[in-house]
Specification:
With 785 residues, the protein is mainly β. The protein has 3 helices and 49 strands. It is found in: Cell outer membrane.
């Protein structure tokens, strides 16, 4: 079968390929094993001589010495050597063993009979008779069986002919990674009446190719062409079958891979959905020494369900000029507001209703010990709106131009950023009164860090200045206004550590108290627009920040001190963190007017103490990991927000995870995720495969709404030589609607995957999920010897 190449990366001048590269029917593996087992051995260096036998002989040839050992060896005046009884011939990395062998020195022809074994490295071909010409690689093997270590698979054929060193032909050949069963045979097998392979031209041809699973033909091709090596070649990829989608019905996709050039390729995929009709998807990728990118298109000329044409577009590009200029583009668009519901997997946006459309460029300059970066960007958004659940459209930046300077001098660290923006809005709702306009801002800071190992202190002075011009008058009637706000901060901390023991384990315990002081005067900002302002999340990083807002438009007045401490337990031998616990709280020396809850300063806070933030994680027991963040309000003596998660992972492919999220007055959710074996046993009577069935899934339950919001559930069956997956997915697309999707996949180990692919869904949604054929994992044994 074919596998699609991995995404292009701008590190090489040709599109990189991996073990998932396109190989129609992967008969290329058969070709590689059969051809290289003999042909490539001619130029390999000679290996060490075998252990002494009854007799031995050595013949010199242009391709390297030939060593023959056997119980009986006879030589005819350097014309021929005949060997009988446990015969073994070695030349370079090639080893040939047989019961009887004749080697003609002048022609370098080898004739072998009995039990013939041809081996190169760990790849092996076994037959009853062989004839090989060592100098050209031509010859044949009768009744061969073969096994390739690289795929853990093999098969048999009636005859294999080696036509020179670069061509192979096989009759009645088959291929499988399943162990053979005398009664029922392998669970899956790929067979061909005739197989012709040309490695030099990267060309293969199979006649009468049939793929059988449980003795049932599932794919068949009268004549099939394919690449005979791992180099890319145009051809059909395995079909993608979607058994059920609640919005599209049954789906079928037939991708065709087009290898245009070493650094250009395309995939064209005709699609069929029973509820929508015929469509097409396309992807074009390119890779140059300093540029790379891809273009994806999806078109549905007539969507029967929607009664109109539907399409989407995604262009992504990165590049550079002489390692000085860097530029990129990321442009996504969709034909209509409901596109994200109907075709959620087509566009890659993390925010499916906000499609980014941006083009940017930057240039860096080295100025002694400082670095200057000049940049420019145009940032637009396509908002997929809903009349029942509208969202606020973000501002477009058209354009954004800036300079950023960073440097170090005499121990002083300095940063400066100045930027000009034009903010625009499109498709405004009738009640949206936000203004459009321009802003020029300047952010500058100078700090002097001292760090002695046992502690640190960093004083810092910063300035945030901005000038605004709006197209419509602000609340006070002005269209132009400016403000500048200075900030002084001091960040300091100590580091203590001591050695200790716990349960006989050598540990290092650390204690790190930290003090953060901020002084920022109050400036009235209630009349200023809010182009890009947002409140920072309250966490162990932001509690030590100078400003409770992100962006430029709001600077909170502050005369405050944050005091906290963190303690850790570290493994004395490896340095790995076993336990971390911390606490922090902010104290206000005066009332704060501009807060995260009231960014316009309309309701000043009279509280002097912030919520207490508690955070920690633990991996004291290797199989368990615990993480927790808790926010406690002393004013109401209750928890206002908490996130607690636990993961149990005793073995590969054994994962249980749970997360509890709570935000008072907003939401309360419980999330469960798992990958766990639920059944072990024989797949079918008489089969030599001992299978393991795994349950996989994730459920997100809203305790506030008393309903399941998103969920994934399914099973994976690993029979050793094949894996079956059935996964159902439910995604909420509104308060009272959801999309259901059923994915079914058959993975034939050593060959290909057939069906719809649930692997990305599982990896993205289940904490700790591992692919059953993950090369970094130690798989649970599933095949009986």
């Amino acid at each position: 079968m074919l596998h699609r190449p991995e995404s292009a990366r701008p590190r090489h001048a040709a599109l990189r390929r991996s073990r998932h590269a396109p190989q129609p029917l992967w008969l290329a593996l058969l070709a590689m094993g059969l051809g290289q087992s003999v042909a490539l051995a001619q130029s390999a260096p000679a290996s060490a001589a075998p252990a002494p036998a009854t007799a031995s002989g050595v013949a010199a040839t242009p391709n390297g010495p030939v060593t023959i050992t056997a119980r009986e060896v006879r030589s005819e005046l350097d014309r021929a050597t005949t060997a009988a009884g446990e015969v073994e011939l070695r030349q370079g990395r090639l080893t040939l063993s047989a019961d009887l062998l004749r080697f003609e020195h002048d022609s370098e022809m080898v004739q072998a009979s009995g039990r013939v074994v041809v081996q190169r490295d760990q790849d092996r071909v076994i037959g009853r008779e062989a004839r090989l010409k060592l100098d050209t690689g031509a010859g044949y093997v009768l009744g061969p069986t073969y096994h390739f270590a690289r795929t853990g698979a093999g098969g048999d054929a009636a005859r294999i002919d080696f036509i020179g060193s670069q061509q192979v032909s096989a009759l009645s050949a088959n291929y499988t990674s399943c162990p053979r069963d005398d009664v029922l045979g392998p669970d899956w097998v790929l067979s061909a009446d005739k197989l012709d392979l040309d490695f030099e031209k990267n060309d293969g041809r199979a006649e009468g190719a049939v793929l059988r699973f449980m003795d049932v033909p599932i794919l068949g091709f009268p004549v099939l062409s394919f690449p005979s090596t791992e180099a890319p070649r145009s051809g059909w990829l395995p079909p993608t079958i979607d058994p059920f989608d609640s919005r599209s019905g049954f789906g079928l996709a037939l991708p065709y891979y087009w290898h245009i050039a070493p650094n250009y390729d395309a995939t064209i995929t005709p699609t069929l959905a029973t509820r929508r009709g015929l469509g097409v998807q396309g992807e074009f990728r390119y890779l140059q020494p300093s540029d790379s990118g891809k273009l994806q298109l999806h078109a549905l000329p007539h969507d029967r369900s929607a009664g109109r044409s539907r399409q989407s577009f995604w262009f992504e590009h990165t590049g550079s000029l002489a390692n000085a200029w860097f530029y990129s583009a990321d442009w996504q668009s969709a034909s209509d507001d409901n596109y994200w519901k109907d075709f959620s997997g087509t566009l890659p946006s993390l925010t499916p209703r906000l499609l980014s459309q941006s083009v940017q460029a930057s240039r860096r300059f080295e100025l002694g010990t400082a670095e200057l970066e000049a940049y420019g960007r145009v940032q637009n958004w396509q908002v997929l709106q809903s009349t029942t659940d509208p969202i606020t459209s973000p501002y477009h930046r058209a354009p954004q131009i800036g300079l950023r300077l960073t440097g170090l001098s005499a121990g002083l660290q300095y940063e400066l950023e100045t930027e000009a923006n034009r903010f625009q809005l499109r498709d405004l709702a009738t009640n949206d009164t936000r203004p459009e306009g321009e802003r020029v801002h300047l952010q500058a800071s100078v700090s002097r860090p001292w760090d002695s190992g046992w502690g640190w202190i960093t004083p810092k002075v910063a300035l945030n200045a901005a000038s605004y011009r709006t197209d419509t008058a602000m609340a006070d009637g002005r269209t132009r206004v400016g403000r500048s706000i200075p900030t002084f901060s001091l960040d300091a901390g100590l580091r203590f550590d001591r050695t200790t023991q716990l349960f006989g384990r050598d540990l290092v315990q650390s204690l790190e108290p930290r003090l953060h002081v901020v002084q920022t005067p109050y400036r009235d900002q209630s009349k200023l627009p809010k182009f890009d302002v947002g409140a920072n999340d309250f966490n162990e990083i932001s509690i030590y920040a100078d400003n409770v807002f992100s962006g430029i438009d709001r600077i909170a007045d502050a005369k405050q001190m944050t005091l906290g401490a963190t303690t850790r337990l570290l493994d004395a031998r490896t340095g790995g963190e076993l336990l971390r616990f911390g606490a922090a709280q902010r104290f206000l020396f005066r009332d704060q007017t501009i807060t995260a809850l009231t960014p316009d300063g309309t309701t000043p806070t009279d509280g002097r103490f912030s919520d207490v933030l508690l955070f920690g994680s633990a991996t004291l027991v290797p199989q368990w990991r615990l993480d927790s963040t808790v926010q406690y309000s002393g004013d109401i003596n209750r928890f206002t927000r908490s996130i607690v998660s636990a993961r149990y992972q005793p073995l590969p492919f054994h994962t249980l995870a749970a997360t509890y999220r709570f935000a008072r007055g907003l939401n309360e959710q419980v999330e469960l995720g798992w990958q766990w074996p639920i059944y072990k046993g024989a797949l079918r009577s008489g089969s030599s495969c001992q299978g393991t069935m795994y349950g996989v899934g994730r459920i997100n339950y809203s305790m506030r709404d008393n309903r399941i919001t998103d969920s994934i559930a399914g099973v994976e069956y690993d029979a050793g030589c094949w894996i079956g997956r059935i996964v159902a997915e439910r995604i909420s697309t509104g308060q009272s609607e959801a999309r259901q999707h059923l994915m079914v996949q058959l993975e034939l180990v050593g060959l290909s995957r057939i069906g719809s692919n649930p692997l990305k869904v599982l990896k993205d949604n289940i904490p700790g999920y591992r692919l059953l054929r993950d090369e970094d994992a130690v798989p649970t044994p599933t095949v009986n010897p």
